[in-house]
Design goal:
Number of strands: 8
Shape: globular
Distance between the termini: 37 Å
Mean pLDDT: 96
Number of helices: 10
Low-confidence stretches: none
CATH topology of one domain: Rossmann fold
Strand order of the largest sheet: 1-2-4-3-5-6-7-8
Structural class: alpha/beta
CATH class of one domain: Alpha Beta
Oligomer: single chain
Strand content: 15-25%
Helix content: 25-40%
Length: 324
């Protein structure tokens, strides 16, 4: 757990807005892990109770990056918005550091809903969630089980259990899967002998070699440059634990996506995003009402911070309509 920064210090990768109030908060999930978050509130909110949003992602990012930008921008549009660090990452608690869990990270969204519902300025019957990248699948999983979540939006969604279990475009063979699980299983012996889990390889290189896939270049240009770098982000400055994929490979996140219905879903993806198929397939699996919005000219990472491409007005319209 990183030391929580002074509330008066702006430590984000995006400019501070003069239209909102901001404060750092903490709360616990039902596993007893302390989560750190930033709450953004409209300055001219009056005394009425407002609709609220819980926001997290991308996978390996922290609240000072994309999720904070989304939360601040939605607060400018009249919502109470909370961007939180997932368990084991950023300023949130949990040991060991930099490990993800399809179960606990799903719970993190519900814990954020718990917290929002305790605020006097929030109408607890009007709470939605936004999941970015890998936390898109966690947000959908949370909405399926947590009926307090009235509407859900995902952007650049990754189905994390699918991609870890089957590889990109489901191209992992059963032999490759078995080999990977054998390797991870043996790694557990090493971790047990050492008394702590070993880190995996750095998520992104220090420098590009020039032969990387285009989406790796896109990630690098966000996480490893001034544009999106943050010291607390595993993608910027760290690595997941070596055994991180294990539970995702055995925990299909979108199993109950149909049970979100009749609450609405909006899935947003870039036209040129390598991850676009995750949103398209989730759309096919989901019940009504649902909407798939493809952003012309956008790639996966563009929807992290390119405010000229992120359809914030569409998000605001969607939530105003569905968080009545």
């Amino acid at each position: 757990m990183s030391k929580i920064a002074d509330n008066s210090v702006w430590d984000k990768t995006f400019p501070e807005s003069g239209k909102v109030d901001h404060q750092k908060v903490t709360f616990k999930n039902r596993y007893g892990i302390t989560l750190a978050a930033d709450v953004y509130l409209p300055k001219n909110r009056g005394g009425k109770r407002l609709a609220a949003l819980a926001v997290s992602g991308p996978f390996g990012a922290v609240k000072e990056q994309s999720s904070g930008l989304y939360a601040q921008t939605m607060a400018e549009r009249g919502f109470v918005a909370l961007a939180f660090d997932a368990s084991y990452t950023g300023e949130s608690g949990g040991e060991p550091r930099n490990v993800a869990s399809p179960d606990i990270n799903t719970e993190d969204f519900s814990a954020a809903v718990d917290y929002l519902g305790t605020l006097s300025c929030v109408d607890r019957n009007r709470i939605g969630v936004i999941g970015i990248c890998g936390f898109g699948s966690m947000s959908l999983n949370a909405a399926a089980v947590d009926k307090r979540i009235k509407a859900v939006v995902t952007t650049s969604m990754y189905d994390m259990s699918r991609v870890m279990a089957k590889g990109y475009y489901d191209k992992m063979t059963i032999e490759q899967r078995t080999q990977m699980l054998e390797h991870l299983s043996q790694q557990r012996w090493k971790d047990a002998e050492n008394g702590s889990p070993a880190p995996g390889p750095r998520i992104l290189p220090e420098k590009l070699a020039g032969n990387e896939a285009s989406f790796v270049v896109d990630y690098f240009n966000y996480y490893r440059t001034k544009r999106g770098y943050h010291r607390n982000s595993p993608n910027s400055a760290g690595a997941w634990t070596a055994t991180n994929p294990l539970s995702f490979m055995n925990f299909p996140l979108l199993t109950y996506i149909k049970e979100i219905s009749p609450r609405p879903i909006l899935l947003i993806a870039g036209e040129h995003a390598h991850s676009r198929y995750f949103s398209e397939d989730a759309y096919k699996l989901a019940g009504d009402p649902k909407e798939l919005l493809i952003i012309p000219g956008a790639g996966h990472v563009d929807l992290y911070d390119r405010v000229n491409l992120i359809p914030f007005e569409n998000l605001a319209t969607f939530f105003r309509k569905n968080l009545m």
